[in-house]
Amino acid sequence: MTTPVYQNFINGHFLKNQSGETFAVKNPATDEVIYHVEVADAFVQNAAIESAKQGFATWSAMTPIERSRILLKAVELLRARNDELAKIEVLDTGKPWQEAECVDVQTGADVIEYFAGLAPAQVGQQQMVGEDFYYTRKEPLGICAGIGAWNYPLQIACWKSGPALAAGNALIFKPSEETPLGAIKLAEIFFEAGVPAGVFNVVQGAAEVGQWLTQSDDIEKVSFTGEVGTGKKVVASAAGSLKDVTMELGGKSPLLVFDDADISQAVSAAMLGNFYTQGEICTNCTRIYVHKNVYKQFIDELKTRTEQNIIAGDPMNPEVNLGALISKNHHELVMGYIDKGISEGATLLTGGEALKPDSAPNGYFVAPTVFTDCTDDMTIVKEEIFGPVMSVLVFDDEDDAIRRANDTHLGLAAGVFTKDIKRAHRVIHQLQAGICWINSYGNSPAEMPVGGYKQSGIGRENGIETLDHYTQTKSIYVGMTDIESPF
Ligand code: NAD
Questions:
Q1: Local confidence band at 305 (pLDDT 50, 70, 90 cut-offs)
Q2: Res 487: pLDDT
Q3: Helix and strand tally (H, E) in the chain?
Q4: Is the distance from CB of 193 to CB of 165 less than 8 angstroms?
């Protein structure tokens, strides 16, 4: 059976490359190739830049309210095609349909809608300086680049294009080579909604295509989502042309559960923050610090619910709530971490093995895994695993728990469960993380800025401030009086 071959989406249409080079994309739940994609060669790359220049000229000349109207039309199309797009995400990523159907497209559309609404409200300043005055204009940057990870492919493309386009920029987006189709569909939707050709181009490929984007002198900013190590390479490369950067990177986030917490709620948060999207979420609370007085109660309920309530299998089955990991390589990596957890002396409370569900026997499944009796020096407690592997640790002193939670070079997210309102805020204010939850975990609405402290990131996505990150301020001094000159 022949599989489709997708080309790069440039200037409002598909563009064939000249090298003929393609790569294969597999469904992680079946291990079968589902389609091929053409790599963006030099010919496609040049076309992407040239059309983005044209697109930017047209788009940036439109009023914010005109751009807003077009983006809102795209939002309408995204929502109308929810199921078609959600299915693409399930087949590309291996995540459960029951998640993609209500989260991936919706949260992407929400962000575009949010920035479409904000764009016409963005204003400059003016101030008198004596009889003269100055005013400022918020101008778009020009051509921006977005580079995406594979866990929320369409959502990431929406989170980057929403503010970039609302502010009047053109965006060249490179999705992960593991999950390239969602971004193409978004490009078609933008174009259908009336976004001018060249304003949103999609280039395909792996690291080399990403590197080209980070090096290009024609690109003013790169917004990257991916691993810390790749992020460092992107920043170093972007420095060559002094590009602005936004970095959304990895985490090893702590959740602190105090002895007055609602334990069932805390268990729900821990399970969501480790097993949703089979653990492939950057903000996951993979280090759970539980107060010694409730430790036994917490792990007993966690074990029961993990063993009874999780259904792995064909991700398109709406009953399934644990999907397949993204690739064979990643599966091996996650299983390697589980072996390390065992060899370094953690207690395996549940899980720990690869799964072969009857409905998807060739998929890259890992059982939801909980390690208890963990210590801070274990590899599974220190490194991001990006799979369904939770580490539980005990604490008995608030200050000590905060110190241990902060003892990492990462700082993406953090959470606290307690009924003591003062303690909740006192603790969360001391945790070194950019995205925090109190008696909750994981929600990330369009209105709320998100991003990391320390090596988990630079800059923010979502929230009002992000629109500013896609503009530059032009100051204009207006002379109302004669110039005083010594010459
Ligand atoms: P990755 O770093 O391997 O790849 C991310 C993207 O970078 C891909 O598109 C890849 O092709 C590209 N790339 C690879 N090398 C490059 C280079 N040298 N120059 C430019 N681009 C290059 O990450 P991944 O495995 O796709 O995603 C998983 C990681 O993403 C995890 O660490 C996770 O925590 C992180 N993540 C973070 C957030 C966030 O918002 N903070 C969200 C999702 C995922």
A1: very high
A2: 96
A3: 16, 25
A4: no
> For ligand 1, is residue 161 a contact (CB within 6 Å)?
no
Nearest 5°: the CA angle 4, 363, 369 is 140
Enumerate residues 6+ apart whose C-beta is below 8 A from 34.
Answer: 3, 25, 26, 27, 91, 92
Farthest CA pair distance, the chain? 88
* Beta pairing partners, 370: 350, 390
Closest CA to 348 of 405, 303, 314: 303
One-letter amino acid for residue 426 of the chain: R
- The residues carrying an active-site annotation are 160, 248, 282, 461
What's the whole-number mean pLDDT along residues 280-297?
98
Position 326, amino acid: I
Q: Of all atoms in ligand 1, which is nearest to the CA of residue 452?
A: 41
**Does the global pTM surpass 0.90?**
yes
CA 226 to ligand 1 centroid distance, Å: 2
For 190, residues 6+ apart whose C-beta sits below 8 A from its C-beta are: 74, 161, 165, 199, 200
- Nearest Cα neighbor of 140 from 224, 60, 201 is 60
